[in-house]
Design goal:
The protein has one domain: Protein tyrosine phosphatase superfamily (Protein-Tyrosine Phosphatase, Chain A). A 3-stranded parallel sheet has the order 2-1-3, with helices on both faces. 39% of the residues lie in helices and 8% in strands. By secondary structure, the chain is mainly alpha-helical.
Length: 159
């Protein structure tokens, strides 16, 4: 794995530090906390799409995570399955529940995944508006090259 997107805002204390010690070359492309009870915004999804497409083109191994790996990461994994693997929303929701834990703690995830399916297909959101993808974004959105704090970035000499 060469790049990671962190959905809980903790890369500064994990990946950003580790890459200087044990994982040189790791790029943290996103490190902001998302709320599983609020829909993902369009700018993030466009950047995610571009990141995945670039990784596929270049044969790069990538990953994304949150704190527990169930809610935020589960929602994004469901979107990935829909957008890139051609799954239905219902199939992605089933997998999210099968692999996740304590999903009942966030009952809005299922309708959010249905809204993500609408977004991926370019359709108008078909669920309650509070679950729909937020905002709008240019098709050219992208993640920053390095989302780590400046003091945790590798020096220009590669050290």
């Amino acid at each position: 794995m060469r790049e990671i997107v962190v959905l809980d805002g903790t890369a500064w204390r994990r990946e950003c530090r580790w890459r200087n010690e044990v994982c040189p070359g790791l790029r943290v492309r996103w490190d902001e906390a998302q709320d599983p009870d609020r829909p993902v915004d369009a700018a993030f999804l466009r950047a995610f799409d571009a990141w995945v497409e670039e990784a596929r083109r270049e044969g790069k191994r990538i990953a994304f995570r949150c704190w527990q790996g169930w809610h935020r990461a589960g929602r994004l994994a469901a979107y990935y399955r829909i957008r890139f693997d051609g799954w239905t929303a219902e199939a992605a929701i089933r997998e999210m529940h099968r692999r996740g834990r304590m999903m009942a703690a966030h009952p809005g995830l299922d309708p959010q995944v249905r809204a993500l399916a609408d977004f991926a297909a370019g359709r108008t959101c078909s669920v309650d508006l509070r679950y729909c993808v937020a905002g709008d974004a240019p098709a050219e959105a992208s993640f920053p090259e390095d989302a780590c704090p400046a003091d945790l970035r590798p020096s220009s000499s590669g050290q």
